[in-house]
Amino acid sequence: MADNAKRLVVGVLAHVDSGKTTLSEAMLYRSGAIRKLGRVDHRDAFLDTDSLERARGITIFSKQALFTAGDTQVAWLDTPGHVDFSAEAERTVQVLDYAVLVISGPDGVQSHTETLWALLRRCHVPTFLFINKMDLPGPGREALLDQLRSRLGEGFVDFGAEESARDEALALCDEQLMEGYLAGQPLPREDIVTAIARRHVFPCWFGSALKLEGVDALLEGLDRWTRPAPAGEHFGARVFKVSQDEQGARLTWLRVTGGALKVKDTLSGGPEGQPWSAKADQLRLYSGARYTLASQVLPGQVCAVTGLADAKPGEGLGAERDAGSPMLEPVLTYQVLLPEGADVHTALAQLRRIQEEVPELHVVWDEALGQIHLRLMGEIQLEVLQSMLARRFGLEVSFGEGGILYKETIAEPVEGVGHYEPLRHYAEVHLKLEPLPPGSGIQYDTDCREEVLARNWQRLVIANLEEKEHRGVLTGAPLTDVRITLIAGRAHLKHTEGGDFRQAALRAVRQGLMMTKSVLLEPWYHFRLELPAQNLGRAMNDIQQMEGTFGPAEQTGDSAVLEGSAPVSGLRSYPRQLAGYTHGRGRIILTPDSYRPCRNAAQVIEASGYDPQRDLDNPADSVFCAHGAGFVVPWDKVREHMHVESGWGKARPARPEPEDQPARRAAFRASLEDDAELMRIFEQTYGPIKRDPLAAFRTVKKERPDFDSRQWAVLPEYLLVDGYNIIFAWEELAAIAKDSLAAARQKLMDILCNYQGFRQCVLILVFDAYRVPGSQGSVEQYHNIHVVYTREAETADMFIERVTHEIGRDRRVRVATSDGMEQIIILGHGAYRISARQFRLEVDEVEREIRAMIQQEKG
């Protein structure tokens, strides 16, 4: 494969039974990758390689196939469609360049389709749609497009329509396309490709994968309307799956995003404190069950690597960042029942080996009861797990009756205090616990001055809190929707060790939970119920008895559809009831929805029998020292003995301002004084600044070919950022830059995208390229910010000076830099300066406000 070849990683996703695997088979056949068409119902599909997949006729594990579409090399990833295995699909989405979403024409948009669409939107994956089974009776093209727009949003365009109709629809999706359309010119291919890449346009094709209708058009579309992702200069890759081959060798599946991965390259990763390093022994390019060995893998390729024993799904390697937290989480829990004579610890180790491949399995060891518990999405996962244990380890297990995975949160803010001071040890930690909107998870923050507690101790506290799954005090269920903020603490110069802060921090969480009001949460399902119309009344009554909700029923002839939400506790066994009273003609599709306050909390709490004061793994009491010996202080007496007074909840307001606010105000006053001093220096050197009140109404001479002030939208503020100056001034970016300057650039660009989205300023990020021979410079659009690379012999300072001279007199312009000379120059052009340190504080504050807004919207 040539180094300049166009390579794409494309994933196919769908609601179960939409024909996703059939489409994959058709794509491989029409592209020439396979010579014979297989079928799911014949159990000979090319990508259903697992025996359990062939037996059940569903995709359980994501698979890879390789084919060529025109001039494009495609790594095609087939993902599971059943909701029980949605976490597998979610991990795969994080490595895609493009996605193909398959929708059943007769069924239209279904509940899991919306979940997949939200996942693609969250990961910013450009998406093509194939509406399948159009040979069967259904609503028709226009009705399906209307349904897509009403259920998923705008941007869906029929690419099988005539060019004039297609271009008219495209013009409504993107401003640039609209300008071209109004000019009466054919829409340039590059503009359409850009609109698709930006998720402004979602091309749609209609056909029947089983009859090979529309498949060639989709293949042509993947070649014509796509572009490869920009590759990083340095090596980067993301792990999305771990599996085993037929010989039991561990395979680590990854997508290369930058540089090149060669055989025997040493890779490293792992969290802080648990790093790993290993050589890539083999690079396998799989297509179905077969593979070829490669000497190197380039950006845009997916491979399976042997030799990486400790890599985890979602982990970023090299310059690539780790993936975000999963969107979908399990809602059911089961006890593992081992056969008589089986060793529980051996079985636990075997389950944890499988958990490496299936992270959503969540194996939990209850040491007090000597039991193994699993957290799962649904019952089909139990069958898969049983099969894997029997096949690999010869272990025949069964499962106890499943239970609901409850969660807990708090109803009001509280300060938790933890103290750990046995002889020759010392640590005290004060944490503020605040409730967050539903779905927020647990968030961590610090609001503690370094003169109170050194930064290294603060980082240790947060690291220890993050690695622990905190349990509530009502039933011992996992804690969620809480922000935990470090507000005070104390260490001893001689006696404090790292483990002391772990003890103090975890005790502070529990002490806070014991002090405040907790709320028990239960999971809810979104359901879609399809049944005979004569049984609709019974179904409505059942849902109401569960205290669920639903919308208006849809009736077509003798069939009815009911959609809504209800507690998992009521819907878990409902499929069997439905089959009974509809005589097998009813069908229900369940999708995890959200967690809500438990309706029968008192009954569930009593049934759990949980006593938080007997939970020895999660103590709320503290340990103090007196007369050379440690003694335990009960949680409700800790505040009487604590050594630090945080001040929170007493003299401070209900929503306290940061403790370093006076210092920030002082720093701001100092910056104003500095600006005044810089202004005096400038005027002494160059004379008084004379502003032209009519400057905004005069034509400004264009100073450079790649910059024109008319290209920037007129917004309240322009912010120019000296990129490399900021990178080396911010500690975290400087640390990244030591290993990879490209990674530091990327990190800064991502940070500034969030900042711009909140502040709504025109943000221009400038990087020096003056040492790059022959560089003509460029202005690029990265999401919502403009990134400038200067031309040869032009520094970032020179570019910023030119721009502030051109736009600084009639618009508000700020420049983020700590370059003293540059600050003097920009002041002369009427711009405001902000130091790298002040800009860091601004960015941090914006990120906090963004999180708060997201939490409010979720609520």
Strand count = 40
Average per-residue pLDDT, rounded, comes to 83
Instruction: Specify the structural class.
Output: alpha+beta
Main β-sheet, in a few words? 7 strands, mixed
Helix content: 25-40%
Architecture overview:
A hairpin with a 2-residue loop joins β2 and β3 (72-78). Strands 2-3-1-4-5-7-6 form a seven-stranded mixed beta sheet, sandwiched between helices. α6 (163-171) packs across α7 (175-182). The relative contact order is 0.06. With 859 residues, it is of the alpha+beta class. It is 33% helix and 26% strand. The chain is globular.
Summed up:
By secondary structure, this protein is an alpha+beta fold. Helix content is 33%, strand content 26%.
